[in-house]
Amino acid sequence: MGQIHEECGVFGVYANETRDVASDVYYGLFALQHRGQESAGIVVCDDGVFSVYKDVGLVNEVFDRGAMEKLGVGTMAIGHVRYGTTGTDGRLNAQPIVVNHIKGRMALAHNGNLTNSSVLRERLELSGDIFHTTSDTEVISYITTEKRLTEPSVEAAINQAMYELEGAYSLVFMSPTKLIAVRDPNGFRPLCYGKLPDGGGYVVASESCALDAVGAKFERDVLPGEIVIFDKDGVRTIRDHCGTAKRTMCVFEYIYFARPDSFIDGCSVHEARIRAGRFLAKEHPVDADVVIGIPDSGLDAALGYSMESGIPYNIGFIKNKYIGRTFIAPGQSSRENQVRMKLNPIASVVSGKRVVLVDDSIVRGTTCARIVKLLRDAGAKEVHMRVSAPPFVNPCYYGTDIDSHEHLVAYSHTVDEIAKIIDVDTLGYISVENTKKIAVSDMCTGFCTACFDGNYPTDTEYASKKNRFEEKISLGKGKGDRTDE
Amino acid sequence: MGQIHEECGVFGVYANETRDVASDVYYGLFALQHRGQESAGIVVCDDGVFSVYKDVGLVNEVFDRGAMEKLGVGTMAIGHVRYGTTGTDGRLNAQPIVVNHIKGRMALAHNGNLTNSSVLRERLELSGDIFHTTSDTEVISYITTEKRLTEPSVEAAINQAMYELEGAYSLVFMSPTKLIAVRDPNGFRPLCYGKLPDGGGYVVASESCALDAVGAKFERDVLPGEIVIFDKDGVRTIRDHCGTAKRTMCVFEYIYFARPDSFIDGCSVHEARIRAGRFLAKEHPVDADVVIGIPDSGLDAALGYSMESGIPYNIGFIKNKYIGRTFIAPGQSSRENQVRMKLNPIASVVSGKRVVLVDDSIVRGTTCARIVKLLRDAGAKEVHMRVSAPPFVNPCYYGTDIDSHEHLVAYSHTVDEIAKIIDVDTLGYISVENTKKIAVSDMCTGFCTACFDGNYPTDTEYASKKNRFEEKISLGKGKGDRTDE
Amino acid sequence: MGQIHEECGVFGVYANETRDVASDVYYGLFALQHRGQESAGIVVCDDGVFSVYKDVGLVNEVFDRGAMEKLGVGTMAIGHVRYGTTGTDGRLNAQPIVVNHIKGRMALAHNGNLTNSSVLRERLELSGDIFHTTSDTEVISYITTEKRLTEPSVEAAINQAMYELEGAYSLVFMSPTKLIAVRDPNGFRPLCYGKLPDGGGYVVASESCALDAVGAKFERDVLPGEIVIFDKDGVRTIRDHCGTAKRTMCVFEYIYFARPDSFIDGCSVHEARIRAGRFLAKEHPVDADVVIGIPDSGLDAALGYSMESGIPYNIGFIKNKYIGRTFIAPGQSSRENQVRMKLNPIASVVSGKRVVLVDDSIVRGTTCARIVKLLRDAGAKEVHMRVSAPPFVNPCYYGTDIDSHEHLVAYSHTVDEIAKIIDVDTLGYISVENTKKIAVSDMCTGFCTACFDGNYPTDTEYASKKNRFEEKISLGKGKGDRTDE
Amino acid sequence: MGQIHEECGVFGVYANETRDVASDVYYGLFALQHRGQESAGIVVCDDGVFSVYKDVGLVNEVFDRGAMEKLGVGTMAIGHVRYGTTGTDGRLNAQPIVVNHIKGRMALAHNGNLTNSSVLRERLELSGDIFHTTSDTEVISYITTEKRLTEPSVEAAINQAMYELEGAYSLVFMSPTKLIAVRDPNGFRPLCYGKLPDGGGYVVASESCALDAVGAKFERDVLPGEIVIFDKDGVRTIRDHCGTAKRTMCVFEYIYFARPDSFIDGCSVHEARIRAGRFLAKEHPVDADVVIGIPDSGLDAALGYSMESGIPYNIGFIKNKYIGRTFIAPGQSSRENQVRMKLNPIASVVSGKRVVLVDDSIVRGTTCARIVKLLRDAGAKEVHMRVSAPPFVNPCYYGTDIDSHEHLVAYSHTVDEIAKIIDVDTLGYISVENTKKIAVSDMCTGFCTACFDGNYPTDTEYASKKNRFEEKISLGKGKGDRTDE
Fold this sequence. Notes:
4 copies of one chain form a homotetramer. Chain A is α+β, with helices and mostly antiparallel strands. A 7-stranded antiparallel sheet of chain A has the order 4-3-5-2-11-10-12. Chain A has a 6-stranded antiparallel sheet with strand order 6-7-8-9-13-14, with helices on one face. In chain A, a hairpin with a 2-residue loop joins β3 (39-46) and β4 (49-56). The radius of gyration of chain A is 23 Å and the shape is globular.
C-alpha cells in the first residue's frame, strides 16, 4: 500500500494457425494489469504484416471493440502494460515499439531497466542515430538492429546485443516469423512460457497467472540469460549467456509486485508471502487477540502470521470495490477521505481487541497512519503493525520506481520513530536475512535486495533511476545543456 | 455470486449550516454503491432552492467535478443509488425524484417495493393524475401530496399516507426545511441515522457503513413504522405506525446485500455471516483439508465454517481487481472467459487438497460450475460446496430482483441434481430455520424468508415483481391493453 | 448573429407499417437543429409500447448507435430539439415528455410559450397535482388529461384543453394509436405536414426543411387553431378554434429563426429575406462598391440588397467550418479570438472598397463591432451596416429568448449612437412597417412584431419570460417564498 | 466535393519572450484545419525543453484544456494538422515528430511528399537506422541528423540535406534555439511567414489565413528553395537552392485546397477561383436563369461565372452546419441520406429555372449525381454543370491523396458519358490551359498540373502514392517480401 511501482508486464503468443491472437494478448495483459496501469499496447502479426494499437489507460479502456477490430487476426502477437512516472507522456512511451530495419521489421516489449543505457545511447547518437523516446527499449532495438547488419538471424543479433546490455530486461521480441523471449543473465525480472491447449502454440508472459488467463499450461520459467525462440519449427533455445552472472531475482516481486496466484522461478508467490508472515511472527511475536491484513496486499502475510502465532485470523477491513483508478474524491479534505472511502474497518472484529495489523510495506507512512486511526476509532485496544518487507532506503536501478528519499519515512526515521508517527503500539519489519528465505525452490538461489541493503548486483556507475531522465513531457532536458547551435 | 439484485440505497444529510452537503451525500452513496449500480442522484436544498443531478452510471461516473459544481452548497441533501432491470431507461427512473406541489416542493428517495401500488395508481389516475415513470416512488409522492392538501405539515401528510401504503419502503424525504426518514411497519429494508461530528447535524442512510463514510456516529436504527423528522428544532419522531405489523426484516440483507462492515438492527452483518458459516459447518460437516470462500461474497461464511469445523482457512482465489462494471470480454467464448478473467485459483493452496468451497448463493449454477472446474484444473482432489443461503424458489415482492423461475437452478432441481450440475463431491445449503438465527440482537425478532419458503408477510394479491411492469424502455405495456381511443 | 434563441423544434411521423421510424425523426430533428441545440429527444411507439430516449446535446451527439438501437422500430414516433436558458438542467426539461394517465399514455412535444401557465399551474396544484419540471409542456399534459376524464377521445380532450391554453403552442401529440398536430389560434409558431413517398404515411414538422430531410412531400401548413389527427383511418381535422384569433405569426421566424430553404405559411424564407434586403436598399441607399453579408445569417438579405441597389454582391468573409458548439478558445483574450477564429475577411474583396455589410440583427453590438474592425483592418475604406430586422426593445412572451434589457444595445442607444459603438460610417435598420411586408402569401395576413413595437397580440398580465421562472437548476425559488411547513 | 485530400498544414511561432505560444499554434492550426482533419500536434520549446502533445482528432478535440496545460508556456512552438489515408494508424503518424540526436533535439513538421524517400530509406536502413513510421518526415530527420554530424549548425545540416531530398516539402523545424522554415526548390506547397504585433516575434504558416488567425501581419512567402531562420538575432535566410528548379506550385491549392481568404505566392485564392469561374463562362457559355454553387467549395467560381456571363447569382443550397466530421447517418440508405442531410436546395430559387451549377471537382460522380437529383426534385428545369478544375486522370506524387483510378469517373469516361451519369443537360470543365492562368502574380510563374495532364515536374521513377506504402495499420507489407530470418 504505497507509492512503489513496477514498470511493466509483457506477453506474447505464437499460434499454429491464424486466429484471434489479439484476444489472447488482451486476456494476458488483463491478468498482468497490476504490473502497469498507465498504458497498454498490442501488436499483431498477420502473415508478416504488423498491426499496432496502444494508448494510455487500462487494458479494457484502451482495447474497446474498435481497437480490437483494427488489430484483426494473425498468427503472433505481443503486448505490454506499463507504469509511467508522473509527468511523462505515457502515449509516447507506450510499448510495444515497432521498428522497420534493414532486414524487415520487429516489435519489442520490455520489462526492466538497463544500467548502461546512457553509455549505449551516447555511442549510438554519435553514429547519427536518432531517438524518439527516452526509453531503454529504443536503445535495445538499435543495438539489435546494429548487430543484425552482420548476423544471419534476429536471434543471433539478440545474442550479440546481450553482450552489450547491462541491467534488468525481460523481453518479448516479434519478427515477421518468430516470437522470441529473452531474460537478462541476472534474472532480475520474471519471465515464463506455456503451451496453449490442443497444440495450439505457445505463450510467453511476465507471470504465470497470465498463462492461466488464456488457458495455457505452464511449461517453465525462461532461464536467466536465456533466449527462447518460437517459430514454425517449434521451440529452440540459446543459452550462451546463462550462468554468466549470479542469480539476483528481485525479491520484491514475491513480496509485493507479483500476483499471489503466480509461480515465479518455481515458487508460489502466495506461499512466499505466507512464509513472510510466518517469519514476521517469529521475529516479532506479540500477545494479541486477532490478526488482520490490509486488503489486498497484506492478506497473505497476515494469514501466515496467524498460522505461525496461533492468533486467530479475521477479516478486519472492507475494501470498497468501486474505487477505481480514476476516482477523485470531491470536497476539501480529499486525501483523508480517500482512505476512508477505500477502507472501512469491521468494528465487531476489532472493537475491544488487541489487533495485529499486517501489510507488505510502509512507504510514506501517511496512509498507514490513517488506517491505524480508523482501527482505533472502531475500538481497537492495541494495534501492532507488522510489515512483510524490510524498510526501503535505497533507489532501485532495475525497474522499480520508488518514491524519492525525502518521501520515504524509513529513510530518515528509526523504527521507533515510525511507530510513533503511525501511532501503533509496536512495529516490526521482517529482516533482510529472512526476506531472502521466503521464496523456496531449486531456482531461487539468489536475490536482489539492494533497495533494502544497498548491495547492487551490477555496476551502477552510469545507472540512474529512470525518472531522472524524464523531465516534463518525455522530452525534457535529458541531456541537459546540450542545445543545438 | 449471481443474478440477484437489491433495488436501492438511500442517504440524507441535515446540516446546521450551509456547506458542501453534496459531498457528504457523494461519500454516503459511494459507500452504498453495492446496493445499486445503475443510476445515482443527489438533490441539494439551499435556502429552499432545490438543485438536482442524476444520471445512469456509478456514483463516481455520474458525479464528476462539473456535476458537483452544479449542485453547489446547501443545508440539506438527499441521494439515491438504484439497480435497474435490463432494458428499462435508467435515466428516467433515476431517483431522487423532485416534485412541485401545492405547498411547495419535495424530494424523495425510496428503497423497497410497494405491494399495492397498482391499486393506488389506478385510483390516482382516475382522478386525473399523470405518471412520468413506472416507479412506486411517484405513487408515494402523489399520495403524500394528496394528504398534504388537508394536513398541516409534510410529516403529518406522510403519516396519513402510510395508512395507504403497503409493502416495503425505507424513505428519505426532503422538504424546503426538513429532512424526514420513514421505514415501513414491517421493517423490510434497513434504515438508520447518526450524528455528524461537532454537532454538525444528522445523517440518514440505508446502512451504517455509509455513516462511517462521512465520519458520522451511528445513533440508532429507524424503527419499523417510524417517521423521524430532522429540522431546526432537532430530532422528532412519529410512531403511530410502530408495532402495527410483525417485524419481517429481509434476511437476505444479512446474507448477501449489505456490506459486512454494516450493523443492521443492532447486528453486525459480518458476524451474521460468520454465524451462517458456523451453522453450515454444523449442518453439513465434511472431512477436508482447507476451507476457501469465493471472493468477495463467500469469505465471511468461509471463515465461520473454518472456525466451527477447525479445518484451516486459506485464500483460494485471486480476484482481478481491474474487472469493472463495464468490462466486456473480447473474443468468442466470452462468458466462460469472463469467469476466468475475474477469478484465478491459487494452485498451491488447492492442489491435491480436499477443498470446502463456500459462497452465499447459487443462482443459475453456470458461474458456480465454472469456478468448480477452475479448482479441479488447479488440482483440487475433492470439492465440497457449502452455501450460506437456502435455495431460492419464490419471487420477492419487496424490492429484490431475482432471476425468473426458469433460470433458478434450485427451482427445478434437487440438491443432488445441482451437485451434479456444478460437479461437486458434496453440496450443502444452510436450512431456512438456521437462517433465521444468523442475525442476533434485541431488534432481530422476525425475518422475511419468503424467497426461500414462500411465507409472504403481507397480502400479495396485487403485488408483482417490479420488472413485470417494466417492459422495454420504461414505458411499456404496463397497463397492457389500455390504449387511448 | 447574437444572443437570440428560439426555444424548440418538433417533429412527428405516422407510418403505415412497422419500421425504423426513429431514423425518420433523427433526420427531421437534424434538419431542425437550428431551432434548439441544448437537448434532443425521441419517443417511438411500437404497438402501443413507448420507448423514449432524450439527453442534453446535439441530435448526433444524443443519438449514437446505442441510443438508436434502444429506440427500436415502431409505427409512430415524435421528437424534439430544445434550446435552454443558461443554468437550467437541460436533461430534466428535455422533451418529448411521456405521461401515463387514466386512459393510457401520451407523449408530447411543444414549441412556444404559454402566457397563462402560472394561472393554470396554480389551479392544478390546488387540486393535488404535482409537477416535475417548470415547463409549460407539463401544464398542457395535465389540462389535456383532466379533459380526457370526461371526453371520449384524446383529440376531443385536446380540443377542450385549447379553450384554456393561451399563448404560443405548436404541438405534436402521440397516443398509442394516433399522431396529432396542434397549432395555437394565433399561429405564432410554424407547423406543417407532408406525405411520405409511396403512401408510407405522414410527417409533421416545425419547418418544411425537415420534410425534405426525410424525402416527404409538403402537403400544407397546419392552420392556426387547427387539430390534425393522423391514424389508421388517414387524416382528419378539428377546426373549432380556427379563426378565433387574429393571425400573428412571429415575423422573426422569417428574419432569423427558420432555415432559408423552408416555406412557412406559403412563403419561402429565403425569398422573405431577399425581400428584406431589397427593402433595406430602398430605405437606406448608399453609394458603395460591394455588398457582403455576415455568414450565414446575413447572406440572403445581402443578396437582396445587391439586387435592388445594383451594387455587386461578393463573398466577404470565410467562416471556419470547424467551429462547433463546444468550441472553447484557449488563452486569455478568448472572446475577441472567438470572432477572429470564426470569421476572416477576404482582403481582396474589401481592401480599398466602400463596403455595405448586411446582417439580420444587432444584439449586444460587441460581436458586430469586432467584425467591423476586421473589415477595416483588411483595408475597407468605408463600412455601411444594414440590418434586416428592426431594433429589439421588448421581451418576447411567446417562446423567443432574447437577452435582458441591459444587454440589448438598441434598448438604451439611438441608431447614431450604435453606429458609433460599432464604428460604421452609416447604419440602417429595416422599418417595422416593411418587416410586415417581407413574407408574402395568402396565409401571411398578420404578424407578431411585439419585440420591435410592443404590440402584444394576447393578454400578457400573467405572462413572463420563461427564464424568470427558471432559477438555478430547474427547481429554484420559482414560487419564491412558498416553503413547506 | 469529393475524395481528394491534402496531406498537411504546418505552423510555427518564434516569440521574443516566454508566453502562451501553444495558444498561438492552436489558433494557427485551427485556421489550417481544412488541410488535414485526421490528427493534430503541437510541440512547445521552453528554454530548450520540448513538450509534445498530439493525437488523432480535430484541433479542438485534441487540444482540450488538459492538453493545453500540459504543453505549458515557451518561446517557440510548432504544430501540424494531418490528413491520413484510411486504415493507417493516425496516432503513430501524427506530427510534429520530435527526435533526440547527437547535438541535442529537434522537432519537425512536414507538408508534402518526397519522390525519392524509398531510395533514401533503403540507404539509411543499410547503415543500421530504424524507422518507427512510414512517413517521409522520419527520412528527413535522419538525413538532417546525418549531415549534422559534420555541419556546424542545424541550418547548415538542412541545407546539405536538401541536396538529397526530392519532391514536395514545406517544413517547419524547431531546434532548442531556432525556428526554421524550408520550402522545396519547386515550391510545390505554400509556405509564408509574418510578424506578430508589437515586435512580438514571427510566425510561419502553410497559408496566410493562419497568420490572420493570430493577428500577425503577412511578411512574405518563403521562396522555393529557401531556408529562413528565426532566432534571437532576428531573421536570416539561406538561398543556395533557390532557382535550382522550375517553379511548379500545385495549381490545385488555388482551385481546391487552400482557403479563399488566403494569399499564396502573391495571389488571392478567392480571386483565382473567381477567375476560374470566369474562364468557365467563356469556355462553356449557356443560356440560363440562375447560377448557383455547391457550398462551400463551388461558391467563388459560381460568382465568377455569374460575373462573366451576366446570369444572376443566387444561393441554391442550404448546408446543414451541424454536419460534423464524426457524423454517422442512421438507418439503411445512409449514403444517400448523408447528401440529403448535408444539402437541401432552396426550391424558390431553382424551381422552374434553367440552373448553372458550379463546383470545383467531380471525383466519383455519385455525390454529384445525388445533388443534381435534389435540384430536379426541387423543380429545376435544366441543370448545367460547370467544373472549375479539369478532370483528374493521374496520380499525384507530391502530397495529394486522390482516389484510386477505378473510382475516378473521369479516368474511364468521356465528358458526355459523365454528363449522362450525373444526369445534367450540359457539362463543362475548365481547360488545363486556362487553369494555369487563374493565379496571377509576379511569383506565379509555373504550376504543377500533373494530375490533369501527366506532366510530372520531377523524376517519379521511385515515387509512389503515399498510401501504397501504407497498408493496414501503418506497418504493413511496405517492403513486401522482406521478412526477417
